[in-house]
Amino acid sequence: MARPDKAAAVAELAEQFRSSNAAVLTEYRGLTVAQLRELRRALGENTQYAVVKNTLTKIAAREAGIDTLEDQLFAGPTAVAFVTGDPVESAKGLRDFAKENPNLIIKGGVLDGKALSADEIKKLADLESREVLLAKLAGAMKGKQSQAAALFQALPSKFVRTAEALRAKKAEQGGAE
């Protein structure tokens, strides 16, 4: 029979897995408490970074319906970054912190139920943020609308210039006779 404190910890972790967009598993061996605090600050308010017990986390992930995490991700001291906001921002925060502090190792994670390797998380970090991508999309759409407006405006304008040229040519021919 499971102890009540462990059952409560599993339930809490399972709820965090369910309520987050992504979860990134890291190894934090060698980081000081001050560095962990700095990492939590760097990740922002949309990411909760929690040191977890491997066995309880595996059970919680299974209870949350996440069967894609491999057992090797749960080796060594593990901490999980539960992301409720933009996963790109959190991946960038983890990547940048890991560059400055090589003791932080990104093991892998899960994004919308799909398992991610450490390399895929680094690729995710290389993406631009959601806001930047939306701004680029809006700019591209606005550009296409401007092109369409110019095209629609060009047709009547060209017709008027052609009609004026024909009128001028007719007047010239009529005046020459």
Automatic annotation (TrEMBL):
PROSITE patterns: RIBOSOMAL_L10. The keyword Iron-sulfur does not apply. It comes from Streptomyces sanyensis. Belongs to the universal ribosomal protein uL10 family. InterPro entries: Ribosomal_uL10, Ribosomal_uL10-like_sf, Ribosomal_uL10_bac, Ribosomal_uL10_bac_type, Ribosomal_uL10_CS_bac. Part of the ribosomal stalk of the 50S ribosomal subunit. The N-terminus interacts with L11 and the large rRNA to form the base of the stalk. The C-terminus forms an elongated spine to which L12 dimers bind in a sequential fashion forming a multimeric L10(L12)X complex. Keywords: Ribonucleoprotein, Ribosomal protein, RNA-binding, rRNA-binding. GO terms for cellular component: ribosome. Forms part of the ribosomal stalk, playing a central role in the interaction of the ribosome with GTP-bound translation factors. The lineage of its organism: Bacteria, Bacillati, Actinomycetota, Actinomycetes, Kitasatosporales. The keyword RNA-binding applies. Transmembrane segments: none annotated. This is Large ribosomal subunit protein uL10. It comes from the Bacteria.
